[in-house]
Amino acid sequence: MTLQGKIALVTGARGGIGRAIVARFLKEGAAVYVADLTPEGSLDKHDDDGSHFVKLDVTKEADAIAAMDHVRSTHGKLDILVNAAGIEIEKTVEETTLEEWNQSFAVNSTGTFLTSKYAIPLMRAAAKSGSSASLINFGSYDGFIADPGLAAYCATKGAVHALTRAMACDHGPEGIRVNAICPGYIDTPMLQSFFEGDGSGGGGGNIETLQKAVRDVHPMRTYGTPTDIANLVNWLAGDEARYASGQLWVLDGGLSAQVQQMKL
């Protein structure tokens, strides 16, 4: 078990990708804090898996402080933080309201900032114990290139990419590694919402046709699964990745390697 004795906290942990990360961390021997708005999260299902639920609205500073205080009082350190909480709004800039723009940044960018800010002292304590601590953010391939109709989402993920590099530079000397995973199309409730939506997704089209179009545009002719993401997260979290920091790890089945991207 590669994470035996490690303490981990995952935000957005009851979403599709978050659940896969938590399951993998538990399998690898970590003590895992599941941070989300409710124990059920977006999938309306409560997992009795041995993890520890912590209520956390990542847009609220008081919640971030309380979550880290809870970890501190129990363990005194945090080896792994995964900032997986996120939302997506399918609109152009012209269509996006100021409230929607601010909410997108509040969850995707400010949420990453707040959780990281109050986790870093605990991660510094973990690093002093002899192994590096690992902070893993969630960017997106949409932080490099853009799907149509995702203006605010693309902007927030670009911000996460820049923040990741900055934190890696600032806290690397303290033994804290900081990376971002940048997924492409992953089979999650968010992706299904994209297929059904009125923005760059479904727009009233046939869902099966859209799903096939997405698969076929990838060089690997498929989109990813939450387990694919969890596998990379697990490696970055562990000591085998001790020299990996400040990087944006794109996991998209070769989608962004192509000259021409799809248009739905």
Automatic annotation (TrEMBL):
SUPFAM superfamilies hit by this protein: NAD(P)-binding Rossmann-fold domains (SSF51735)
On whether Oxidoreductase is a keyword of this UniProt record, the answer is yes
Q: Which Pfam families match?
A: adh_short_C2
Q: Name one GO molecular function term.
A: quinone binding
Output the GO biological process annotations, alphabetical, semicolon-separated. Answer: fatty acid biosynthetic process
Q: What keywords does the record list, in alphabetical order?
A: Oxidoreductase
**What's its top-level EC category?**
oxidoreductase
- Which PROSITE patterns does this UniProt record tie to the protein? ADH_SHORT
For this protein, the Enzyme Commission number is 1.1.1.163
Lineage, top-rank taxon, reads: Bacteria
Q: PANTHER family, per this entry?
A: NAD(P)-BINDING PROTEIN, SHORT-CHAIN DEHYDROGENASES/REDUCTASES FAMILY MEMBER
Family stated for the protein in its record: Belongs to the short-chain dehydrogenases/reductases (SDR) family.
Name of this protein: Cyclopentanol dehydrogenase
Q: What is the lineage of its organism?
A: Bacteria, Pseudomonadati, Pseudomonadota, Alphaproteobacteria, Rhodobacterales
